[in-house]
């Protein structure tokens, strides 16, 4: 895949193809239709970006059920790809009406990972005239392989994130709180056009950089601290996810040593990951290097995850991931070393797995930066 | 309830009382224990703020199961209120081990609103040696009545939000995009100490202010536009939720007329809402006023909702809400009028329902502001 880095505003509309692929999956699974509740899956198939929807897909019909708040928006976003039904009271009431009006429906699938037990009870009680079968990852599997338009949007989101970081770093000083740095970074993300924050920004300094799941705190940055920033941007629903770790002030020899191990692990994995490889083998590229450098115990999480309409999606790059990475997947590469009480380093890039090899979407230096 | 507006850093630890109240609820429901999966419920009972946890509560035991990423944090947050188990692989594997080690457990509850069907299948398959009963709102009901410490935290979060708005309004100009305004507002929220954004900020201008569920877009603000800002802050996990609508430039007579109807509806409901009243009657205070002014068709959503550890929680203030509002609840009061294609106004405050009447936590002018 050649990455065209020019802005591409017009993308081929793939929704009909995606729906067709899903219908083929339903037929193979002996289902007469599928009721979708996963909002990212619904967005992928129809373009609808609202927070309240049910979607019915059969070989003949595509019906999107939402509420009055989205009356204007849904028409613009969905166009003719689905019939839209606006419900005044409950989406579920609308569902029974829509299903009741469709002929030859007996066996219906539902998304086992996106239906709360409470709503499952609705299916088997109010929806007792149909047989319900749990399905797993029918749409998620389609979403793993990004098309060119999707890669472009993630590339744009990656550009928003890295330009925001460029704007932010010159403003960081010791004495600022992590929350203040988060504010500068998030403002820069907005100024660069991010529609939202795909996950709570992590700005973690000093010993807090050793917490792999820190958020941002009132802690004030001290000279000599590691400062870890893990954040993302969103463009047309597609996410980027970037981490850089810098030193505020001058790096110590020990900081430099740990940093360089993570940097090389990141570079080896970003260059070495391939479509067709298992998630475990991809993870191992970075993990073996960190192990051999003597820090294996301190790399406690997995190497990465898919990104797209969600910031965590398939495939996984982890010790327990047996599946082959599909061509077209966009994944994070984010090795880290965390020494409790001392600090931690993580360097994360977003990489698309092209036919001829990986392409890094997040263009930002990986050398250790010493600020101020 | 008298609202002490001074900062209160030391709050009485109510976790043991909350757990005791839950255990009484379990006994009344003939359950030997409850497996909790709702993260806000787990935080309420134990103080744990991480994103991965299961909690088991019985008359004898309180066991929190989380993963290695939270090893340091969980000990600080939970203290001695629960026994903590750190799981290397799956929280569910840890659950079977913990339950297996407890005597006299036969009938266990699970949270029907917080268990995906996929995980429900785990309960009835891997957890087949126990009988599983769906439960609804056992902890949510406790959470409806805020104690003084909780009201204080929401008051602090309300102060963060209103001070951020004070900082933001002088910086707003026509020609700025909604995303840029969101950036200024969110930076101010961070500078005032917000731990995060309880929901995606809405900055909607001109005709977009008529979309009750807009987010923020690249649209540039024009002179004469309504500018609607709906946003919140988070302090120690507790949320605030505020909306103000201003005019950029000079307001037209029509804008002023619509605005004043919403302002009076807000003021009447904020002053008139009472503990003991049904959610429907509270909703009706604002709705009848807007109806009589001739705009009833354009107020399409409900008046408000509870806020606390979640930005939408019980109770509801809506036409379909039959339940009595409990004393100590903190609720939003957010009437609106939305004229498609023209614009909309919403004015939202957070109000605690004290024994002697309502107290408004969000101190910010409600008069129509004309900027620039």
What does this structure look like?
The structure is a homodimer of 372-residue chains. The first copy, chain A, has helices at residues 15-28, 39-46, 71-78, 91-100, 117-125, 138-144, 148-168, 178-191, 253-272, 279-292; strands spanning 33-36, 54-58, 62-67, 83-87, 107-111, 131-135, 202-205, 226-231, 234-235, 238-239, 242-248, 304-306, 313-317, 330-333, 336-339, 343-346, 349-354, 357-360, 370-371. With 372 residues, chain A is α+β, with helices and mostly antiparallel strands. Chain A folds into 2 domains: 15-142, 3-Layer(aba) Sandwich (Creatine Amidinohydrolase, Chain A, domain 1), CATH 3.40.350; 145-371, Creatinase/methionine aminopeptidase superfamily (Creatine Amidinohydrolase, Alpha-Beta Complex), CATH 3.90.230. Chain A is elongated, with a radius of gyration of 23 Å. The model of chain A has no long low-confidence stretch (mean pLDDT 95). At the A-B interface, helix 5 and helix 8 of A face helix 5 and helix 8 of B.
Number of H- or I-type helical stretches of chain A: 10
- What is the H/E order of chain A? HEHEEHEHEHEHHHEEEEEHHEEEEEEEE
- Sheet having the most strands of chain A: 6 strands, mixed
**Multimeric state:** homodimer
Query: Helix proportion of residues of chain A, in percent?
Result: 25-40%
Number of domains of chain A: 2
Average of per-residue pLDDT values of chain A: 95
Silhouette of chain A = elongated
Which structural class do the helices and strands of chain A define? alpha+beta
Which parts of chain A are unreliable, with pLDDT below 50 for 5 consecutive residues or more?
none
The CATH fourth-level homologous superfamily of the largest domain in chain A: Creatinase/methionine aminopeptidase superfamily
Number of strands of chain A: 19
Distance between the termini of chain A: 40 Å
């Amino acid at each position: 895949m050649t990455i065209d880095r020019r802005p591409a505003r017009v993308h081929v509309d793939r929704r009909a193809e995606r729906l067709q692929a899903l219908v083929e999956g339903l037929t193979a699974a002996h289902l007469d239709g599928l009721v979708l509740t996963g909002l990212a899956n619904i967005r992928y198939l129809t373009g609808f970006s609202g927070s309240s929807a049910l979607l019915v897909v059969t070989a003949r019909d595509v019906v999107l059920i939402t509420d009055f708040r989205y009356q204007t928006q849904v028409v613009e976003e969905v166009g003719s790809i689905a019939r839209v039904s606006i419900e005044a009271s409950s989406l579920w009431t609308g569902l029974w009406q829509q299903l009741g009006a469709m002929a030859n429906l007996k066996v219906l699938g539902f998304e086992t990972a996106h239906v709360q037990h409470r709503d499952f009870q609705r299916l088997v009680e109010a929806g007792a005239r149909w047989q319900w079968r749990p399905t797993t990852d029918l749409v998620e599997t389609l979403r793993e392989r990004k098309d060119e338009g999707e890669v472009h949007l993630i590339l744009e989101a990656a550009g928003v994130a890295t330009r925001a970081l460029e704007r932010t770093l010159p403003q960081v000083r010791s004495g600022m709180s992590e929350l203040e740095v988060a504010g500068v970074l998030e403002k820069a993300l907005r100024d660069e056009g991010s529609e939202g924050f795909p996950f709570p920004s992590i700005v973690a300094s000093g010993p807090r950089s050793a917490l792999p799941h820190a958020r941002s705190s009132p802690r004030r940055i001290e000279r000599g601290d590691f400062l870890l920033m893990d954040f993302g941007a969103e463009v047309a629903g597609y996410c980027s996810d970037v981490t850089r770790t810098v030193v505020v002030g001058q790096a110590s020899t020990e900081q430099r040593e740990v940093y360089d191990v993570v940097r090389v692990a990141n570079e080896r994995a970003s260059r070495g990951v391939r479509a067709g490889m298992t998630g475990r083998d991809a993870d191992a590229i970075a993990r073996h290097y960190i192990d051999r450098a003597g820090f294996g115990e301190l790399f406690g999480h997995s190497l990465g995850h898919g990104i797209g309409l969600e910031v965590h999606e398939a495939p996984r790059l982890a010790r327990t991931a047996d599946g082959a990475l599909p061509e077209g997947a966009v994944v994070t590469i984010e090795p880290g070393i965390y020494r409790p009480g001392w600090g931690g380093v993580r360097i994360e890039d977003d990489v698309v797995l092209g036919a001829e090899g990986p392409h890094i979407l997040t263009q930002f230096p990986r050398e250790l930066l010493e600020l101020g």
